Amino acid sequence: MFGIGGGELVFIMFVVLLLFGSDKIPEIARTMGKAMAQLKNATNDIKHEIQKGAEENGLDTKSLSEMTGGINSQINKVKEDLLGDSVVQATKIKEDIEDIAGPVKRSR
């Protein structure tokens, strides 16, 4: 959870207990829970509005996934082409070095 371990979480809870006292912690937790629920509802409303607007403009999730799938496949193709070229170049350079100096052996 956010890169926080068990010991760190206990320490944070201890500091919160010292700062606010045991009588205020339930009220703070309740307020934070309500705020998180409101935030979740707001993000869900925004997501639904975006989806509704996209559907009104003729963009449904299927066509969007097809578009992104095509883009991703093109990106992957370019990556493979570039990687393949660099491997070929590295192999050629290695062979040229071995031709000049002979195979390089590590001494132990």
Automatic annotation (TrEMBL):
Subcellular location: Membrane
Any Pfam family hit: TatA_B_E
The species this protein was found in: Flavobacterium sufflavum
Membrane topology annotation: Single-pass membrane protein
Keyword presence, RNA-binding: no
Cellular component GO terms held in the UniProt record: membrane
Annotated keywords: Membrane, Protein transport, Translocation, Transmembrane, Transmembrane helix, Transport
Range of residues in the leader sequence: none
Gene3D superfamilies in UniProt: 1.20.5.3310
Gene Ontology biological-process annotations: protein transport
Protein name: Twin-arginine translocase TatA/TatE family subunit
